[in-house]
Amino acid sequence: MVFGLFKKKEKKATDPLAAFDEMIESLERQGAAARRSAATLISLRSELRRDEERFSKRIEELASKRSDDQKVSEVLSRDRDELHRMLMRTKEALQQAERDSSLLMEAAEQLTRQLSTLKEERQGARARFSGGLVVSAALKAQAADFDRVMKLDAARDEVEKAHALAEIYRDDAER
C-alpha cells in the first residue's frame, strides 16, 4: 500500500486570472478593515471631543466656586487638578485618534487606488488571455490544416508515383 507515497503530485492547471482575483479579494478585505477601523476612531474622536468639552466646563465650574473653608478649598483644588489631568489625557487621546484615523483613511484610499489599478490590469490580462486562447485555437487549427495538407501532398505524390509506375509498365508492355 506504499505505492502512492513516492509519486509526484500533478500540478493542476490553474486559471491565470485567479492570482488577480485573490489579490483583489485581499485588497478589498484590507480596505474594508481600514475603513471600519477609521470609522471606529472617528466615532471615538467625537466621544473624546464631548469629554473634552465636559471636562473644560467642569473645570470652569470648579474655578468659579470659592470657599472660605480651607478643607473645601483643598478638595476643590484637587478636583480641579484631577479634571485638568483628565482633560490633558483626553486631548492627547484625541490627537492620537485624529492621527490614527487620518493614517487609516489614507491607507484605505491607497488600497482603493491599488484595487482600481489591479482591476484594470486584470481586465487587460483577461483580454490578452482571451486573445491568446483564440490565437492558440487558430494555430492548432492551422497546424491541423497543415497536417491535412501534408497528407494530401503525400497522397498526390503516391498518385504521381502510381501514374509514373503505370507509365513505366505501359512503356515496357508496348516494347
Summary, kept brief:
The chain has 2 helices and no strands.
Cα(first) to Cα(last) distance is 77 Å
* Helical residues, percent: over 70%
Query: What fraction strand?
Result: under 5%
Average the pLDDT over all residues and give the rounded result. Answer: 82
Write down how many β-strands occur, each being a DSSP E stretch of 2 or more residues.
0
Give me the number of helical elements.
2
Q: Characterize the largest beta sheet: strand count, sense, and whether it forms a barrel.
A: none
Shape: rod-shaped
| Secondary structure category | mainly alpha
Topology as a string of helices (H) and strands (E): HH
In the predicted model, the low-confidence regions spanning at least 5 consecutive residues are: none
What is the gyration radius calculated from CA atoms? 42 Å
Fold and architecture overview:
This protein has 175 residues and is mainly alpha-helical. It has a domain at 18-131. The chain has helices at residues 18-64, 70-174. Helix 1 (18-64) packs antiparallel against helix 2 (70-174). It is rod-shaped. It starts with 17 loop residues before the first helix and ends with a helix.
Provide tags for this entry.
mainly alpha; 175 residues; 2 helices; rod-shaped
